[in-house]
Amino acid sequence: MKKQLFLIALLILPLCLKAQEEELGTAVQQQLGSARELVRKSGAGVYTGFSGGMMLHIGYMFSDDPRKIFSNAGLGNEEYVKNLPKDGVSLGLGGTLRVHLLNHIHVGAEGGMSIMPLRGHGNIRIGYGGALCDGYLSLGKTRPLLGLSLGGGVMKRLYLPENPYTYVPEGTTDTTVYNASYTQTPFFYLDPYIGIEIDLNSHMALLLRIDYMLPFGRSGSTLTDLKNGVNWGNFMTPTGPRLYVGIMFGKF
User: Fold this and answer.
1) Residue 204: CB atoms within 10 Å
2) Percent of the chain predicted with pLDDT > 70
């Protein structure tokens, strides 16, 4: 009898072990599935969308001295330079691409171009590009935002005198006739901005933004032949506020 019970136990034991192994495997798989879901939800919580689009802007740029605007050789005498424009309206366009994080942060890149006509005396073109980061709040279909972009660019100045200007350096017989002058100055910039986005639908939003670019370039200018030099410091002009209007596309 004992021998028969022992044989029955030997037959039942593998079945019990197999059932326990299957139950343990199911529990492990459930735990792994829960861990994967937690990671997936955590990742979705960090990355919440993306967007990008084009923006048009209009602004007002100014300087405290025309010599900083027309930093070109052959400008003419002091009285003539004083009457040159030192402010004006700027127009331009740009584009941006952003990733949304934590449903409160935009991180991305942008670039653009602004042109400032100088009332028949030429123009100033500013090309720039860099990285951006801003924080925003979701209030229904609107998102107010506050941020900063930084990067680099080039300021190009084209000067067209009313009449060709003949320049003879003192103590020489060399004669130079200026009928146009063109210079390029690279710069680094900081660009604080504030704005608001308004959802038009689930994949499109209207963006309104105001910024004030702060360009920093060479500490001094050797491009002017005026007797009184211009001390630029590190801050370059012209500059001023700009209003952007654009359409953003993406997943909001």
Assistant:
1) 14
2) 72
Please count the other Cβ atoms lying within 10 Å of the Cβ belonging to residue 51.
21
Average pLDDT, the chain: 80
DSSP calls for 154-208: EEEEEE--SS-EEE--TT----EEES-EEEEEEEEEEEEEEEEEEEEETTEEEEE
In whole angstroms, give the CA distance from residue 215 to residue 189: 4
- Size of the chain, expressed as the number of residues it contains: 252
Distance CA 63, CA 213 (A): 13
Residue the block writes with tokens 């953003």:
248
**Alpha-carbon span 246 to 251, nearest angstrom:** 16
CB burial class (10 A; 0-12, 13-18, 19+) of residue 155?
A: buried
If DSSP states are collapsed to H, E and C, what string results for 9-35? HHHHHHHHHHHHHHHHHHHHHHHHHHH
* Residue 131 contacts residue 97 (beta carbons within 8 Å): no
**CB within 8 A of 142, min separation 6: which ones?**
196, 197, 198, 199
Which pLDDT tens digit goes with each residue over 66-91?
Answer: 877 776 655 666 777 778 888 999 99
